[in-house]
Amino acid sequence: MHSHLYFVLRTILAGALALLILSGALFALSFVFFSVRESGVTYLLDFGEQGLATFLSLFPWTSVLLVLVLLVALEFFVHQFTSAYRFSLLRIFLWVMVIGIAGGTLLGFTPLHASLLSAADNDRLPILGSWYEQVHDSHTDRGVYRGDITSVTDSYFVVSHNDTDRDSDEGEWNVVPPARFDLGTLSAGEKVYVAGRLQHGVVYAYGIRTLRDDK
Question: Using CA atoms, how far apart are residues 19 and 3, in angstroms rounded to an integer?
């Protein structure tokens, strides 16, 4: 036998844990939307089959898995500690998914992640810093290069990336554009997103997109 206070405290604790789990799921899901949009990886979808394969390799699957784990945990708490036991597990999970996706999408368009990304870029985000820093990184191991154009010639252009943290994504690359690409559309100082194959120190691009100033 337990007192009435026990059940009240148990319900409050379950509600607090459920709210904490929901907040974590919304944050992680909104980060997925934000990072995909902000990193520029969606440009890869315009670069043919190679771009699609690279997009899938760079998609934040770990964050998606975290979201699913949190939503399953939330479904468990909702089912175990509320009157939701009257409904099927599938119906509860579907409602949790809908709320999570809607909330995560809306949160992704608030200034929250942009502010945290700015703090990470300036080394002022100690815990989640590495999570955010990769958003603007070049992924040279996957054939993705992003940075500033330093010069343009008749047959190639030079891209430089330096975010001052001295890691593997920094460097300078000579980029040969794909056939029929008009180098006259590029100019020094522009930011670009390049997908290509590195051969003998030269990047042979199969896709090029210029980035907006806020990327």
Answer: 25
Write the pLDDT tens digit of every residue in 55-97. Answer: 999 998 988 898 888 877 877 776 666 555 555 556 656 776 7
Give strand pairing partners of 205: 196
Q: Which amino acid is at 55?
A: F
pTM for the complete prediction?
0.76
Topology of domain 138-210, per CATH? OB fold (Dihydrolipoamide Acetyltransferase, E2P) (2.40.50)
Element (H, E) at 53: helix 48-58
The residue extents of the domains of the chain are 4-133, 138-210
Whole-angstrom Cα distance, residue 25 to residue 63?
A: 9
Distance CA(210)–CA(149), nearest Å, equals 10
Q: Which residue has the tokens 């809306």?
A: 106
